[in-house]
Amino acid sequence: MSPRIGHINFLNVLPLNYGYQHTAQDLKIIYGVPTFLNGELRAGRIDLSNISSIEYAKQSDELLILPEICVRADEDVTSIILISRKPIENLRDDKIILTSKSATAQCLLKIILHEGYDAAPNYETRTVKVENPVDDDATAALLIGDDALYVYLNRPKNFYVYDLGREWHKLTGRQMVYALWAVRKNFNEPLKSTYEKIIRAFRFGIENKTAAIKSVLSTKPFSFEELDKYLGGVIKWDLTAEALEALKLYYQKAYELNLIDKEPVLEFIDIK
Length: 272
What we know:
Elements: E1 4-8, H1 14-23, E2 28-32, H2 34-43, E3 48-52, H3 53-59, E4 63-73, E5 80-84, E6 95-98, H4 103-117, E7 122-125, E8 140-144, H5 145-153, E9 160-163, H6 164-172, E10 176-184, H7 192-207, H8 209-214, H9 224-230, E11 236-238, H10 241-256
Parallel strand pairs: 1-2, 1-3, 6-7, 6-8
Antiparallel strand pairs: 3-10, 4-10, 4-11, 5-8, 5-9
Helix pairs in contact: 1-7, 4-6
């Protein structure tokens, strides 16, 4: 049985999406935002997906990590931001709107504001719109993905914009892993062929990054130069030993704030 594969179709994985389209058309791909695919994986409606890092912690008893690949940034990430009416150091019990698209970013913001700024905001999850990112009843809002990248590059007047990758690095001195690829433990079919297709698709997309970027310019509000800098410059995809140590620290801090029930053991699938 071929696995049903989830794919978070943000620009931060554009090379993989381009590779899927050109080298792996036989794979069964289901597209969605992180929280949707997290839920689909939890429910068993897909077998394998790139997922929010925090979701692995929540489902670690049921999942195994695929080696080699992730979505990470050494410092600035530019596509996960807090946009605020006041400086971040002045936030206390203010209302902050959280995008419903990513649990990893929600937890990251809560860690940063608690540990870095001694803030205890009132969080509310609702839809965040690019054209009006901070509703009138709120002080700040969390954005992720392509929307966040657009606001980061086109900053609205009278607002402060904070890159959460930079804030995490300022707090910990570490990089941040935003997404992993994971498979359900109860998927019993051989995965070697599928895994090799995913890796091959990723490599194809990275090697043909120029063509991948050009393929989306007519539908995205970014220049070639902006996406060229973002992909491979800001965003990286190799799951290194240093990245895993940073991920463990993120889980530790999330556990200390009761954002997850336990610190997960990082278990990898044995590709044979």
